[in-house]
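Job type: complex structure
Entries:
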Amino acid sequence: MDCVILGLLCHESLTGYEIKKRMDTALRFFWSASFGSIYPTLNSLVHDSLVTKFETTDHGRDKVIYTITDAGREHLKKWLALPVKKDELRYETLLKLFFGGETGPDISLEHIRNFESRVKAELPFLQEASRKLKGIPDEKAHRYYLLTAMFGERVYKAYLEWCEEAKRILEE
Amino acid sequence: MDCVILGLLCHESLTGYEIKKRMDTALRFFWSASFGSIYPTLNSLVHDSLVTKFETTDHGRDKVIYTITDAGREHLKKWLALPVKKDELRYETLLKLFFGGETGPDISLEHIRNFESRVKAELPFLQEASRKLKGIPDEKAHRYYLLTAMFGERVYKAYLEWCEEAKRILEE
DNA sequence: ATATCATATATCAGCCTGATACGTATGTCA
DNA sequence: TGACATACGTATCAGGCTGATATATGATAT
């Protein structure tokens, strides 16, 4: 989605590769995108004059740095003010659990334990992000980053509580 | 995804339209699919002999009823035992919030309030589902339905708690 | 009568994912 | 020094899915 890219470029000029990295770190909890959509989107953003490209060489490595334009900032702000179209949770774990009656509790318990492990592995990163952001209370943007980190923290904790309850139920 | 359809057909024979309805009710919290994927998937499942089709007329209306085969049940069971590939949360609300520094707190607060409304509207359905499923404790499959409903309940409650905290932070 | 809604199937442009390909720089182990 | 792995960086593409749209009938309400 082009507005995610504009959002990231609003703060700093980036290469396509760096945009992907931001998504895989700061946004990974609630958004993702592949190179197969990032590069073509960047081209179309350049075509629409919402970003400009600057080809350069850094330590012998060719790269393209993208910078947002005023029109791009305008476009982003309009989109930000628009109501949200879709919030989607798509959990294969829950899908397999829903059909758990076709297998037995053992397989379902294994899915729950795997889910629990993944959540437990992620949670410290969210807590660390919250902790850091609470330390710098004044930079305007940080407050918004904090909100999303707090969301992740709360939700992941709820996941873990559910895991305990679900395991208890399946173990009789 | 073909295994969702097999899972639904495992319990009862259905038309494509009814499959869609199940997804929009029982599964809507954690899974969704469009007609544009359901009908072609059903065709390919028939081609692979995982389901059979039966064309009929009901009250003068033509319809096609799909029934799972033994091979289909086998296929489903294998898939259910496989580890989960992807659990994905994709919340536009969090994305817009993350970039909230570009607008102002008013727009972000509006997104939070809208999110809160949607969650509050959904929660009663999950609670009602939990309540019903807890009442019939013996039918094997219900225990698994209950797990997913409980997940939704817990998560939605965590969402609402976060909404309160987020609003407090943005209102200073 | 007629409008609206639910049932029912189907197609399709356009977008996105996951995989793959290609190439450079840096760090590391032997 | 050479060999290998990892990070950086760009790019393409088959295949799958969404959201929109089209078509048609039965049921219900006004």
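Summary: Chain B has a mean pLDDT of 95. Residues 122 and 133 of chain B are 17 Å apart (CA to CA).
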